[in-house]
Design goal:
single chain; about 260 residues; alpha/beta; Rossmann fold; 9-stranded mixed β-sheet; 6 helices; about 25% strand; globular
Length: about 260
């Protein structure tokens, strides 16, 4: 009887198939995007530790920790709640990957959640993207929860970037344990109406648009909560950042807001 394939085995098999399909071209040398430190009032967004890190985008509903969180159904014409958070998560995932022994970034969510080619090229300069990224689109929420759990545990991921909408306390506990077991960072985008939902994540972040006179998007980034081993960070840390992308060379970076 043949041995049962593990999730990590399937990942490795998929990678080998992709590598056979991709033309074997030399990998160009390119410096990784950096975060300038010219503004004395700006400090770099911190390195993320192993565990789950949740990112919320948009206005905060009028709720408090003592009241049940509720789902606000999106209205026609509403701005999606994930693009800004996804950009920041992608940039941080690229930074994690450059320091990791693992070479895969897993992106889990629907088609609207996935990053653009320009964003991937900006966070992974000099790498062939098809070798570094695995995209998974689970058909329903229960499969998405299971898939996030399995990729965190797989031992093949440098980071897992996922749509974490609708997660309950059981899913949060499951993901945190999986991230610890796999030794990986999980970066989850969640809608603002879930900001007070109970969770076991290491950190929670809130991203809101910031006013600007430039063409680059500016965001106000606020650290909402911080648990060990990152508990030494102040809970009220805040940043104003901008995403700067140069289409001529395909390079992007997070910079202090102007």
């Amino acid at each position: 009887m043949a041995a049962k394939l593990t999730f990590a085995d399937l990942v490795q098999d998929s990678a080998r198939i992709i590598q056979k399909l991709e033309p074997q071209a030399p990998i160009p040398c390119a410096a990784p995007p950096t975060m300038p430190q010219g503004d004395d009032t700006f400090t770099e967004l911190p390195e993320l530790c192993i565990g789950i890190h949740e990112w919320f985008y948009g206005e905060t509903p009028d709720t408090s920790p003592g009241t049940p969180h509720y789902h606000v159904p999106p209205r026609s014409g509403d701005r999606p709640w994930w693009p800004a958070a996804l950009t920041l998560m992608a940039w941080m995932a690229g930074r994690i990957m450059r320091q990791s022994e693992h070479k895969y970034l897993f992106w889990i969510g629907g088609a609207q959640f996935l990053p653009t080619i320009q964003l991937l090229a900006a966070i992974l300069p000099g790498h062939r993207l098809i070798e570094r990224c695995i995209f998974i689109d689970p058909p329903n929420q229960s499969d998405r929860i299971w898939t996030i759990d399995q990729t965190l545990r797989s031992g093949a991921a440098a980071a897992v970037i996922a749509n974490g909408a609708g997660a309950d306390m059981a899913a949060s506990r499951r993901w945190q344990l999986a991230a610890t077991a796999g030794g990986v960072c999980g970066l989850l985008a969640r809608p603002p109406w879930e900001m007070h939902a109970p969770c076991l994540s290491v950190t929670r972040w809130h991203v809101q648009p910031a006013p600007t006179h430039t063409s680059n998007p500016h965001w106000h980034v606020r650290l909402l909560r911080c648990k060990p081993p990152m508990a030494a960070m102040a809970a009220d840390r805040q940043w104003i950042v901008q995403w700067s992308y140069d289409p001529d060379n395909g390079q992007g970076e997070i910079k202090p807001g102007t």
